Amino acid sequence: MRFADVINQEIVKKHLREMLSENRLSHALFFLARDGAGGLPLARAFAQFLVCEKSNPAAVKSAGPSLFGDEPELAAQTDSCGVCAACVKASQLIHPDIHFTFPVISSKPGTPPLSADFITQFRAWAVSNPYANSYEWLQFISAENKQGNITAKECEVILHNMSMKSFESTYKVQIIWMPEALGKEGNKLLKIIEEPPPHTVFILVAENEELVLPTILSRVQLIKIPPLTKEDITTALVERESLPETTAKKIAGMSDGSYLEALQIIQHQDDDWDAMLKEWMNSIVRTGPAAQVKVIEEIAKIGREKQKQLLRYFIQILQHALHISILGSNRVSEKESENVHDFAGKLQRFLNTQQLEAIVHELDKTSYYIERNAHAKVTFHALTIKLYHIISDKSLILVK
Ligand SMILES: [Zn+2]
């Protein structure tokens, strides 16, 4: 994977290149990014940049002096070449000096699993789904609701690999994807992360720093990777998925800075969120409990990813409604009104700003719980009751 294959994040790419060219590359980088923003793709692209024979000729072990004397100084490369032997291996995740550790599950009870047990699957999966998250990875290896782990035994493998001489490149890179899955056993790695052998680079790629051992956090250099902008996602959808620009914009608006969410929305484009939302709202304001139970059951059936999308879609509509009530419909920009929904207009006439904000807050919270495996029926039932109170009884809004 080249930097060019990573959607935007130009500032981070430049920062990484400068650290390398100015000889101040930290030996333990901690990439922090929400899923779908490009954490793992950036780690892969940077590892490839480190071993590429063209972008980083000094990194090639066998590079001797040229037979023909002085070679012209190469212009500083801003990306790996993508075609040298090292790049080809790196792009297939088979470069012997780029090691991957990621959450896995035990295939035999009582046997601590290793990333190496799943490496063939991981390569195939990561190459075709560079923007996917650990939830999808665990689904891919049929972990269902099992929690992925990075085991104490895996930490020993890392220690072993990093203590060996590198094979082909001057650099040895250890990518640890989702260090959140490291329990206390991660403390085994403290020493090597703090004082690694020369030319060893650790790249930890995390989504949630609160779940990472503080002892590890204090030994790494944090690199925050921002969510993608709507423009980044729009461009990527047009270029990579050949979507028409208006569709791409609409999806980008719903994807919350995550290219992964955008791709998931495309998969479910045919889902009629409008119909489901209207039925749900109607059950709250008009038809009553029996209708509510029916809608909640329908929502429970669609699964976690779609539930999150439904919530996000609803939040987007409410945000449009908020814009209209704050700015007035004639002040909402032309650009935005392309997507403005008649549903947003209706909600805005029906609910005041405080109510709209309170609903967004509740939807956000629900999305958070759903993400963490909360029971769908119970969660949406509780949400429905809250929405009923927010919509029907304004006084309750203040008692958040
Ligand atoms: Zn190359």
What does this protein structure show overall?
The chain is an alpha/beta fold and 400 residues long. It has 3 domains: 3-225, Rossmann fold (3-Layer(aba) Sandwich); 230-266; 271-398, Zinc Finger, Delta Prime, domain 3 (Up-down Bundle). It has helices spanning 10-21, 39-51, 85-91, 119-128, 134-140, 152-163, 190-194, 214-217, 230-241, 245-254, 259-267, 273-287, 289-301, 304-327, 334-337, 342-350, 353-371, 376-392; strands at residues 28-33, 98-101, 172-177, 200-206, 221-225. A 5-stranded parallel β-sheet has the order 2-3-4-1-5, with helices on both faces. Helix 2 (39-51) runs antiparallel to helix 3. Mean pLDDT is 87; it is low at 69-73, 334-340 and 396-400. Bound molecules: zinc ion.
Sum this structure up briefly.
This protein is α/β, with parallel strands linked by helices and 400 residues long.
Tally of contiguous helical segments? 18
CATH fold topology of the largest domain: Rossmann fold
Shape: elongated
Known CATH architecture of the largest domain: 3-Layer(aba) Sandwich
Strand order of the largest sheet: 2-3-4-1-5
Sheet with the most strands, sense and barrel status: 5 strands, parallel
Determine the structural class based on helices, strands and strand pairing. Answer: alpha/beta
Mean pLDDT, all residues: 87
Order of helices and strands: HEHHEHHHEHEHEHHHHHHHHHH
Enumerate the distinct ligands: zinc ion
Report the CATH C-level class of the largest domain: Alpha Beta
Ends apart, CA distance between termini: 47 Å
> Regions with pLDDT < 50 over 5+ consecutive residues?
69-73, 334-340, 396-400
Q: Name the CATH superfamily assignment of the largest domain.
A: P-loop containing nucleotide triphosphate hydrolases
* Fraction of residues in H or I helices: 40-55%
